[in-house]
């Protein structure tokens, strides 16, 4: 269970939204556009994110400190002797890259993470709290990534509590749909073949010509082959999504 609550999260998000709005007005008063560079906007707000979450944690836990300097924990909760790393991102093209500094995580061994996902307009959010992430929960850094490591969501999401918004595994959604489609097709195949079997039996009893009987048997074979090919394709797609690394979709909710 998370030591952060939805109520605490909502309070902080409300503060952050007000802070962002004030920052936006200040930029505009100087002829600047805060949203011109969303990455830079998030970097400016990240300090407030650390401060505001440290404040609400400090109301409940002893020894809460906020530092944020390079190599130092963003938030330290002394009472529980744990570090909380704070991240903010607005995604890109619907994709959310949950990253960390791999060198720091490897050196420390285990850290808690708090990711705030926000729309470019800063009006909808999803907050993900991960407890006890280790280097194994991230992919090794790619060459040229400057030691930035991408989260392995298949592992890390098992340690996540969603404090705002929603998170759904796309693999599970696709698998549920494909299995339903397969069951429906299997039932349809059984009904069609049962009707054809009945027609073949009736034809045999009705003293039809061998040519007519062969046509019915040929039709049954074609239908069996047609359904079998469809089922094979569905089973292949099911296996694909079972073996594919988990893909997660995050729903960002407004504060209202």
Q: What does this molecule look like?
A:
The structure is a single chain. By secondary structure, this protein is of the alpha+beta class. The protein folds into two domains: 6-164, ECO RV Endonuclease, Chain A; 172-243. The protein is 49% helix and 20% strand. Strands 1-2-3-5-6-8 form a six-stranded mixed sheet. It has a two-stranded antiparallel ribbon with strand order 4-7. A hairpin with a 6-residue loop joins strand 5 and strand 6 (125-133). Helix 1 crosses helix 2 and helix 5 (170-205) packs antiparallel against helix 6. The longest helix is centred in the last third of the chain and has 36 residues, at 170-205. It is elongated and about 90 Å long. The protein starts with 5 loop residues before the first helix and ends in a 5-residue tail after the last strand. The mean pLDDT is 89.
What is the gist of this entry?
With 256 residues, the chain is an alpha+beta fold.
Pick out its properties.
256 residues, alpha+beta, ECO RV Endonuclease, Chain A, 2 domains, 6-stranded mixed beta sheet, two-stranded antiparallel ribbon, 10 strands, 20% strand, elongated
């Amino acid at each position: 269970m998370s030591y952060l609550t939805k109520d605490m999260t909502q309070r902080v998000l409300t503060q952050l939204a007000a802070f962002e709005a004030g920052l936006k007005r200040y930029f505009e008063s100087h002829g600047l556009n805060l949203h011109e560079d969303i990455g830079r906007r998030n970097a400016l707000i990240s300090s407030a994110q650390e401060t505001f979450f440290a404040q609400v944690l400090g109301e409940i836990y002893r020894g809460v400190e906020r530092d944020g300097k390079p190599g130092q924990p963003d938030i330290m909760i002394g009472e529980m002797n744990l570090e909380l790393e704070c991240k903010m991102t607005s995604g890109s093209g619907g994709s959310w890259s949950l990253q960390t500094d791999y060198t720091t995580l490897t050196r420390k061994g285990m850290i808690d993470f708090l990711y705030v996902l926000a729309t470019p307009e800063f009006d909808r959010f999803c907050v993900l709290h991960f407890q006890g992430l280790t280097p194994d929960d991230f992919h090794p850094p790619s060459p040229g990534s400057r030691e930035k490591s991408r989260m392995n969501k298949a592992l890390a999401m098992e340690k996540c509590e969603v404090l705002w918004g929603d998170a759904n595994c796309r693999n599970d959604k696709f698998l549920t749909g494909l299995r339903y489609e397969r069951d429906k097709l299997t039932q349809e195949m059984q009904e069609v073949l049962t009707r054809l079997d009945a027609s073949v039996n009736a034809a045999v009893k009705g003293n039809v010509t061998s040519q007519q009987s062969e046509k019915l048997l040929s039709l049954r074979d074609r239908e069996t082959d047609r359904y079998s090919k469809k089922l094979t394709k569905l089973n292949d797609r099911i296996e694909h999504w079972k073996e594919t690394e988990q893909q997660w979709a995050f729903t960002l909710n407004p504060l209202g």
